[in-house]
Design brief:
about 160 residues, alpha+beta, Pnp Oxidase, Chain A, 8 strands
């Protein structure tokens, strides 16, 4: 797959999620799956999604136990991103992504040691544009299998191996 195609797919997903203020982050618990709303970062989508949280949350513990997550966006289009989450405590990255909105929501500042970032590295994304009913699937980082993911004629599959 060419880098040009990869860039086009990234740009499509960036356009689809850029105006959606809240995403639903799904994590794995001992009881099953749990979803909760998370404020979307106002950064350019490059295959990574970023969210602020605090250490004393269930999602922090859940990600430490199981890094498989899903992030769903609903707006003019619908986007579902599957990926791997990691906890990031880098002070410079927190400062870079911090905004006054987080200060109000979290009642603290970026340099609070309890404030952490969740970085989701996208592995695959599905999106449905409401203007047409074609389901499109973009595989960003195909780790699971080396098989061709081509599917039924209503689906367009694009592999974006690194």
């Amino acid at each position: 797959m060419s880098n040009m195609m990869k860039q086009e797919e990234m740009e499509t997903l960036r356009e689809l999620i850029k105006d959606i203020d809240t995403a639903m982050l799904t994590t794995v618990t001992e009881e099953g799956l749990v979803s909760r709303p998370m404020k979307t970062q106002e950064v350019e989508f490059d295959g990574d999604l970023w969210f602020f949280t605090k250490k004393e949350t269930n999602k922090y513990e859940e990600i430490l136990n199981d890094q498989d997550v899903n992030v769903a966006y609903a707006g003019k289009s619908y986007v579902s991103v599957r990926g791997r989450a990691e906890i990031v405590e880098d002070l410079n990255k927190k400062k870079e992504l911090w905004s006054i909105a987080y200060e109000k929501i979290m009642q603290t500042s970026y340099d609070d040691p309890n404030v952490i970032l969740i970085k989701v590295t996208a592995e695959a994304a599905e999106y449905w544009e409401t203007g047409n009913f074609v389901k499109k699937v973009a595989f960003m980082y195909k780790r699971v299998t080396g098989q061709n993911s081509e599917s039924a004629d209503v689906n367009k599959t694009v592999e974006l191996d690194e």
